[in-house]
Structures are given as structure tokens and as C-alpha cells.
Design goal:
Strand order of the largest sheet: 1-2-3-5-4
CATH class of the largest domain: Alpha Beta
Structural class: alpha+beta
Strand content: 15-25%
CATH architecture of the largest domain: Alpha-Beta Complex
Helix content: 40-55%
Order of helices and strands: HEEEHHEEHHHEEEEHHHH
Shape: globular
């Protein structure tokens, strides 16, 4: 069901009787910018977040879970948007957060310094103290993997066959909070500093190498193999107690989730390059798995 401007306007007035919705500005994906008049000709920007029907079928409480997670993460000091309002009464539940100023950075900073910064951010997420809050409402990565056994392409079948072959021998590290979709597009920068980590809808609990593996492929596409290696080395340096032997397994898991890369390629002429990198990434992971 569509969320109308009337629906949003009513929520805005509940948040503050003096506020009035001026208009909404849809963004790519699941977010919209809300332009809100707060009086004295001042405009406040907010963000409205929804979830797809497929995600809501998988988890009917997804809006509530993301809202609760943002509240907790804010208390830990991680730079995330403020969770301001949750509307579960609407047929399509939604949440409203603060507007985080900034934009993604895809290479304006020197490499490998930028890749080291990305690794530092991922490390800070995984260092979240799970003992300070009950995050059991988040999915466990083992259950997520079990749901994703429906391989639709020959590449996915190849990946899953390689993963299943070694799964009995995979040892997991201590569970951590996982972002679930860590890549440069979900990091906002302002004046050279990180301003916000956004899009927590895929957050889960489990093996930290899962975030690393998926993001390695994203960084390979964005910046190349040297950057990916610098990013990986920095992350592992920060997590010396982590057993990284199974990283090829998690590389494959990340690749299986990104097999639709043609649909989000920056430009159509980038698809052949991304496909070549994707296949090389998979091939290297399978070879390294065989050596385990």
C-alpha cells in the first residue's frame, strides 16, 4: 500500500504539532527525503524509510527491528541517523530518521588510505558490545544462509556447491553485529570525515568475516584489486585474534548475494568489467577453499 503525503503529514504533526510537511523527495531505493516546515520559514530535512514486500514477508517486524537497532547504535556512539518515529499501524510500516548530511565517497581520497579508513569503520561495527543490549531480534546469519539455498543461475549453483563441500569443516569466530550490506555507498562523508553509516535493514548477528567477504567484492568493483587487498590486510591487522582461514567461504557467500550486479552497475559499459572481476573473485575463492 502506498504511503501518501497525507499519511506522512499526519505523522509529522504527531512528532511536533508545529511542523508541517511541505513535500517529499524520493531517493533511489527505499528512502525519501521529507521537507518539513518548522516555523519562521525554516525547513527541516528528515528521512522516511520503508521495506519491500519481500523483506516484510521475511520479517513482518523489519521496520521495528531497524528502529530499535538504530536506537541502540546511537547509544554506542556509532555515527548513525537518529531514530525519530516508528509507524507500525500503516499497512506498509515505516520509520522516520534524522537527515544525515554528506554523500558517499568513491575515490576522492588517496588509496590505500581510504581503504584503511573503510576497514576501520567495519572494525568499529564489529566491535559493538553485544552484551549491552539484547539484539536477539536480529536474524542469525546461519538462518539467513539456510534461506538462500535457492540458486537460480549456474554461477550461484557453482558457488553453493563449493560452499556446501566445505561447510562441515568451517569454524566460526565469535559472533558480532554485522551491517549486512557494508559498502562505500552506505557510508556518508562530509568535509573529509565520516558523517553516517546508513541502511541497516540487512543487519544480523554472526561471523564477522561475512561482512568482510561481501565488502571485499564491492571494493574490488569500486577501486580495484590493490585496494581490496589493502582493505583486507588492514581489517585483519585490526582483528589479529580472528581466524581468517574461512574467508574464501565468506567471499563466496558475499558473491552469491551480489550475483545480480548487472542491475546496479553504475553504467552499462561497466558490466563486462564487473563480470570479469566477479568471475575472477569466485575462481580465486574456490581455489583457496580447495586448499583448506
Amino acid at each position: 500500500m502506498t504511503i501518501t503525503e497525507q499519511d506522512i503529514g499526519q505523522v509529522i504533526r504527531k512528532m511536533d504539532p508545529g511542523w508541517r510537511l511541505k513535500y517529499t523527495q524520493p531517493l533511489p531505493g527505499r528512502a525519501s527525503v521529507l521537507h518539513v516546515a518548522t516555523g519562521a520559514e525554516r525547513t527541516k530535512l528528515l528521512i522516511l524509510l520503508t521495506h519491500s514486500q519481500r523483506d516484510r514477508e521475511r520479517n513482518p517486524q523489519m521496520a521495528r527491528d531497524e528502529f530499535r537497532l538504530l536506537e541502540f547504535l546511537k547509544e554506542t556512539g556509532l555515527p548513525v541517523p537518529d531514530a525519530l518515529y516508528l509507524n507500525e499501524a500503516h499497512e506498509t510500516p515505516f520509520l522516520i530518521t534524522s537527515f544525515a548530511e554528506g554523500s558517499p565517497d568513491f575515490g576522492d581520497k588517496p588509496i590505500p588510505a581510504f581503504c584503511h579508513a573503510l576497514a576501520d569503520i567495519l572494525h568499529s561495527i564489529h566491535a559493538t558490545d553485544l552484551g549491552k543490549c539484547d539484539l536477539s531480534f536480529l536474524p542469525d546469519i546461519k538462518n539467513v544462509i539456510a534461506r538462500q539455498r535457492d540458486a537460480r543461475s549456474s554461477e550461484q549453483r557453482r558457488i553453493q556447491a563449493a560452499m556446501q563441500l566445505v561447510e562441515p569443516r568451517i569454524e566460526c569466530n565469535k559472533p558480532a553485529l554485522l551491517h549486512g550490506d557494508f559498502w562505500p555507498g552506505n557510508l556518508l562523508w562530509k568535509d573529509g570525515a565520516l558523517s553516517a553509516i546508513i541502511d541497516w535493514e540487512d543487519a544480523m548477528l554472526g561471523e564477522p568475516l561475512a561482512d568482510l567477504g561481501k565488502s571485499r567484492l564491492e571494493i574490488l568493483w569500486a577501486f580495484g584489486s590493490a585496494a581490496m587487498n589493502a582493505y583486507t590486510a588492514r581489517y585483519l591487522q585490526l582483528n589479529r585474534k580472528l581466524d581468517a582461514e574461512a574467508l574464501p567461504y565468506w567471499d563466496l557467500w558475499g558473491a552469491s548475494r551480489l550475483s545480480h550486479f548487472a542491475s546496479f552497475a553504475p553504467e552499462p559499459d561497466q558490466i563486462p568489467r564487473m563480470k570479469s572481476q566477479y568471475q575472477a573473485f569466485i575462481g580465486a575463492a574456490i581455489c583457496r577453499l580447495a586448499a583448506l
